[in-house]
TrEMBL record:
<dbReference type="Pfam" id="PF13424">
    <property type="entry name" value="TPR_12"/>
</dbReference>
<dbReference type="Pfam" id="PF13374">
    <property type="entry name" value="TPR_10"/>
</dbReference>
<dbReference type="GO" id="GO:0005739">
    <property type="term" value="C:mitochondrion"/>
</dbReference>
<dbReference type="InterPro" id="IPR019734">
    <property type="entry name" value="TPR_rpt"/>
</dbReference>
<protein>
    <submittedName>
        <fullName>Uncharacterized protein</fullName>
    </submittedName>
</protein>
<dbReference type="InterPro" id="IPR011990">
    <property type="entry name" value="TPR-like_helical_dom_sf"/>
</dbReference>
Amino acid sequence: MMIRSAFRLSRAATTVVKIAHSGFNSRKPTTFAPSAAASRSLHERVTSPNANPVTIQMIDYALSLPRAQKSDESYGEAMLVLEQCLASQLSGGEDFVSQNSKGMVLLAMANLSFERGNFNEALEHLRRTHELQKASLGVKVAALEALVGLSLELGNDDASSVLADKCSALLVLDELASTGAGLEVADARAKALKGFVESIRGNFKAAESHFGGLLGNDDCVGSAALSYGEFLHATRNFTMAKELYQKVTEGEAYNKEFNDRNALTACNMASDQVQIAATCALGQLEAHMGKFDDAEETLTKALNRVELLYGPRHPRVGVVLTCLALMFRQKATQEHSSSLLIQEGLYRRAIELLKVPSVDSEVNQTMGAWRDIAALARAGYAEALSVQDNRKSEGEKMKSWAEAHWRNSRLSLAEALRVTESSNSVPVIDARTGRAL
């Protein structure tokens, strides 16, 4: 084990030296052909004077390596590269470029930790950006946005609200705000972030006040556009919600946001997460509009994307499977048809991937935000079983478990399952955080 660790460290150190040598001594820096998703999950290429170009190369390499190889060793090597990159930055001074470079390395380290499910590590990397007083507004907003996203995913709603307030206050206090550098996009992101938190918490009136003014705002892009779209979707403004979802999924907002040198993202607010979540939300919207063939196609596309990114056994796959199962349930109800076998298979697989405890167990607190999805999946599964005489008792136990663990303050579990045209609002599953609005 010690020999293997030493080899990984040596290999990572060699990579750092090669990148540094190439970056400083060649007109054309060495490229490592990182995947587009890996690069855009943190940033588009940022050139001097915003960040050290060698740092950007190292980040690109570190983010693309585990995506390509999908092994524990590749993640370990990628993290070692970033740790050595950060160590080299720590001796590089306290000027803007050095601090911005450090901030981008920390965002990349948070990304790697997040993708491996190490949320505590990811949170710690993000919090360290608070020490970088001279870092750009983009780094600071990205870190706070990611902190909010992770807090929501872990079910720490009060903390997410405080952090969203800090993001709003940052725009007033940050010295770069006076220059207008990235201020418009950052302002839209901060407003949408607070509106998103309030939506998750069921405070739709408060959410509306924060989303106000974002309609038609060209700076409402990426994650901000998705959050606003989900709010409009949940309040049955289907036409405007669809426009925002398509703005994200078709790339207009995506390209605008991530070509902006001040727009950085991380963790469950990163571009790949936003693309998957927007596709998933659009599929739910099409189901709510009764366009079930379109909904199945769109949700299947979201399923393929999340499996490609995380692998077929990740809990996030269970989130999309739950959305797909609920779509089939709604279709069967509206068309007076039956798809019990399909629903049962999807629910069972989702419950397995979400690692939902048995109905005889206490809720697993480490599930965090997955409780919303777990309750929906188990409640839907219970309904599928309740029509089968020999499985009614099993269904009743599932239903009781789901009702005990449903915590959405806006909708009851029964309301979340029964979407009708007369409903004032509809449930929307946010695939970034695994929460139900």
